[in-house]
Amino acid sequence: DGQFQCTSGHCIQEHFRCDGERNCHDLSDELSCEPRFPNGRYCHEEEFQCDNHLCVKMTDLCDGSNDCYDNSDERESLCSNYTCNTLRRFQCNNHKCIPLYQKCDGVDNCLDGSDENNMTICSHRPRPCIFNEFRCANEKCIEVDKICNHADDCGDNSDELGCHTASNCTVGGCEQTCTDLKD
User: Mostly located where (predicted)?
Assistant: First the structure.
């Protein structure tokens, strides 16, 4: 009926068996498969062939994620000589590859500190303030409704500079609003 039953008991379409991808949670759809490509390969040449015959993209190598489910894409002997595609990835000192957006984000994504080393690669880049925030002189972001509220929300008092806080009346008198007047 075009079905393959995984060792775990659930079924998948037969055409998913031996396709180089994990379709059964227990990987039983990739066991005892014949090589599908020349030179005894189970994967396309532009793919990495895992030890368990799964196929992963080359960009998934040495990224700290066990994409092969047997960790063969993260093996020390492979990663110590691997060069990341530096247009999209950052190469850590330990040869791990991380997405460029994780460099200098304040989190040690490399697990060796090399993506956060302020002495060599990170310049001070404050996070951008969002549309309803005010950037203080010290580069902190605060909500715009905290500007001129008689409180130092920035920590450098820049949110209170230039505010009209004088309670003295100027020439021409003060403006008053009357409420709840009774005749």
Answer: membrane
